[in-house]
Specification:
By secondary structure, this protein is mainly beta. The chain has no helices and 8 strands. The chain has a 6-stranded antiparallel sheet, with no helix packed on it. About 20% of the residues are buried.
């Protein structure tokens, strides 16, 4: 999956996972009760940030990584008909 924009500096673009349709026990969750997913797939990565000494610090993430991020992390954007989140690499909590 590739998109037509490239994030700057230490920012990444994440495609959020789909919200759960039903619980593990089989109960269907209505649209009003669904929670925003906190996991997704990295679809684009910036070049990294510049340190105080002027050297480039490469990002730890790469395209295709499955990640966990904070509940209110990132800014929602729509590009090429898809919904994505753009956030700083530091907003990513873990790589799955």
């Amino acid at each position: 999956m590739s998109i037509s924009i490239k994030p700057l500096a230490d920012r990444v673009i994440v495609a959020p996972a789909a919200a759960e349709e039903k619980t593990k026990s089989g109960i269907i969750i209505p649209d009003t009760a669904k929670e925003k997913p906190q996991r997704g797939e990295v679809v684009a990565v910036g070049e990294g940030k510049t340190s105080d000494q002027g050297s480039l610090i490469a990002p730890q993430l790469k395209v295709g990584d499955q990640v966990l991020y904070g509940k209110y992390a990132g800014t929602e954007i729509s590009v090429d008909g898809g919904d994505y989140l753009i956030m700083r690499e530091s907003d990513i909590l873990a790589i799955l």
